Amino acid sequence: MFIKFMYALRDAGLKVSTDQWLLLMEALDKGMAENSLVGFYFLARNVLVKKESDYDKFDAGFMSYFKGIKTISDLPPELMEWLSHDELERSLDDMPEGLEKHDLDELMKMFEERLAEQTEKHDGGNYWIGTGGTSTMGHGGYNPQGIRVGGESRHMSAVKIAGERKFRDFRQDTELNIRQFQMAFRKLRQFSSRIDSAKTELDVEGTIKATGDNAGLLKLVYEKPRKNTVKLLLLIDSDGSMWKHTELINQLFQALHQSTHLKDLQTFYFHNCIYEKLYTTPLCRYGDWVDTDWVLGNFGSEYKVIIVGDASMSSYELMYPGGNINWYNYNEDPGIDWLRRMRRQYEKSIWLNPITSGRWDYVRGRFTIAEIRKVFPMFELTLDSLDQGIKKLL
What we know:
Blueprint (H helix, E strand, L loop, with lengths): L2 H9 L6 H12 L7 H12 L6 H12 L10 H6 L21 H14 L12 E2 L5 E3 L7 E2 L9 H7 L13 H8 L6 E3 L6 E2 L1 H10 L8 E2 L2 E3 L2 E7 L8 H12 L6 E7 L6 E3 L9 E3 H7 L5 E5 L6 H5 L15 H11 L3 E5 L12 H8 L4 E3 L2 H11 L1
Parallel strand pairs: 1-2, 2-3, 8-9, 8-12, 12-13, 13-14
Antiparallel strand pairs: 4-7, 5-6, 10-11
């Protein structure tokens, strides 16, 4: 049954509702698949996929269901019927004069007959399966109603399109790029509020309601503009084991600093763990710092805090006085105590870890990762996890 395709998509993680599936069936009944598997691929994707991050799930499900198809006769009967509408004639209008027109059933029968008869390679001509020419079977020739065998498709088969998985970069569980960081951080704009000023901003929902109440005559409604009230404290682990994550952290940093929806953004740096000092530059040089107590005293609890680091270090660095890896910057209190102080002041705080969560229990530093997770909600740097982290901040 063709319904198995829907379940293949669901098995791949794509949420396909009954309404969406019925809409696809209606579109197929109207011949909107353009009589080809390629047309069906794009039609189904447009109907069933609601956000770009699900493209890869659709492709995975499509490949899973259609991967065994070697010839057009292998297609499910229901899909074959939908792809055999009379609209097929429209695709034959530009055929060279003299070429015979065949319906889909006839083409399939001819293809099976040629497979049984043919014993050698053929180039050109209009009968055998070969290259060039105007035969309905082969590749490299010209016959818009033919069955391609081998070679490269001019329009690509739907299975091949799905097989390339072009949209892997949009998956929710992949690491982020700068654009995706920006889109994720926009959700912090929920923390905007009205300010005391003239009503100069168009209220779209209010205008629609007022217009409806006014018998359909347009009635504009204005509201006071919103003011960004989000204050964010960004603390970034620099150098050492974080070096391999430099590009990703740079993208996060740029995305935040290019954001226009933050009222205030303060950035400081640390190496492995937070102690008595926070550095003002990512170089973490001696003297380029401020007291952590000063940060706690000057940036109040209204600040949201994002700490970025792999949380991977020696247990001494986290749990003991003097564990600071910087010999000249002795810490009187263990790093874990400073992290707890941070957490007590900033209830809305999260830790973003560039190490994938599946490795947290196995990598070097798994002990310190586990201990820090007891203090801060920790999320990996993927689109799904960052969304969860933003929700935690909210």
